[in-house]
Amino acid sequence: MSNRKIEVKEENGVSVVSFVEKKILDEGNIQITGNQLFSLIDDDHRDKLLLDFSNVEYLSSAALGKLIMLDKKVKAAKGALRLAGIRQEILTVFRITKLDKLFKIYDNKAKALEGF
Asked: Whole-model pTM?
């Protein structure tokens, strides 16, 4: 797929997902990113996902909706989802929306990979 919005690397049986875009804002990008994330579960049957947000500067509320849907898909597949490297401004949004209670959020990728 030439329009990749995510990059996936395997580390110790965990699919580590990095985002290509620094800003995940417009509906088109969010749709493509969401579909590519969902495909990891639905098509590739991966059940351990770590989303590394260290490259992401902005994230829209619509993107948060995709993350919630991804979480449901991962749970339905009896898998695990962790988030890491989220900037403070974005983390504040997670706290306000109480999504920090839904997601397992870690300071960095190394911490998130521990005991996955």
From this structure: 0.95
Contacts of 29 (CB under 8 A, 6+ apart): 5, 21
For 32-74, the pLDDT digits (tens) are 999 999 999 999 999 999 999 999 999 999 999 999 999 999 9
Residue ranges and CATH numbers for the domains of the chain are 6-113 (3.30.750.24)
Phi, psi values for residue 43, rounded to 5°? -100, -40
Please name the residue that has the structure tokens 């996936």. Answer: 8
Provide the angle, in degrees to the nearest 10, between the axes of the packed helices 88-96 and 61-76: 70
CB-based burial label for 18 (10 Å; 0-12, 13-18, 19+): middle
Side chain identity at residue 20, one-letter code: V
